Amino acid sequence: MTAPSRASADRLGRLLNLVPYLLARPGIELAEAAAELGVSEKQLREDLELLWVCGLPGYGPGDLIDMAFDGDRVTITYDAGIDRPLRLTPDEALALVVALRMLAETPGTANRDAIERTLAKLESAAGDLTSAPVEVRLPGNADRLDTLRGAVERRHALRITYYTATRDELTERVVDPIRVLVVAGRAYLEAWCRRAEAVRLFRADRIDALTELEEPARLPGEVRLHDLSGGVYQPGPELPLVTLRVGRGGRWITEYYPCEDVRPDGEEWVVSLRVADLAWAQRFVLGLGPDATVVAPADLVERVRQQAAAALDQYS
């Protein structure tokens, strides 16, 4: 969510709670109300001015929220039906409980005490929802993560069988573990890969098998760890640049993947993004179906054309 839309969402929530708040405190001073609501008096006055033009469909006399001012005091005289504080639905409350439980389970999370206090209050308010059959755990089973962490602590090498999604293949390799970390709710092993002769990130849930070896981890003299402040996937200029023309049904990719350029062109968008592998890009484009056409590179255009033609041949 962008800063302007987040500010709008915050203000909407504040406005929905403002009417029942003022109804319970007729004649309250604006300064006192602003202090309790955590906003400036100027912001509160602006919110009240906006409430004055809100109300029920028809938006005529008797439909809009109304209030009376007595100096610096305000009283709601017509609430337009907004007479109760905003309440979470059962689904919303359960979603918050699940998210907080996940956050509490994440290693290295700061302010854990605050999270647990908030979770306790929410679970108390949610009542029977806390007994819902929901189990929260980090991606990758606990045994796998324990083995990974143990290998890091004991500084032992690992033999793993790993699924590489970009190439849709399983590979076996020996790695020297460096650390286990969690990014965006997913657990990763960062390790020196002897096959690639470089530091690599391995998603824990894509490690199909692993064995801790007796031999010690052998790290080069100096290794450069990944900077994950901007996320796991940070495409560099050395990766292939793919340009697609996408229709309305394919625009979601601009929100899901980091794009270098997005340019509207009539009913379509021209989107450029870097990919780790053209084979992955080929499967990705074919998965988008009629909502995407490859513009460049020429190699990808030909790959997609050939596979589409082969698929059509199966129908003849």
From TrEMBL:
Domain PafC HTH: 10-123
Domain of life, source organism: Bacteria
A Pfam family recorded for this sequence: WYL
Domain WYL: 145-211
InterPro entries documented for this protein: CBASS_pafABC_assoc_protein (IPR051534), PafC-like (IPR028349), PafC_HTH (IPR043839), WCX_dom (IPR057727), WYL_dom (IPR026881)
Domain WCX residue range list: 241-312
PANTHER family for the chain: PROTEIN PAFC (PTHR34580:SF1), PTHR34580
Protein name in UniProt: Protein pafC
Organism expressing this protein natively: Phytohabitans flavus
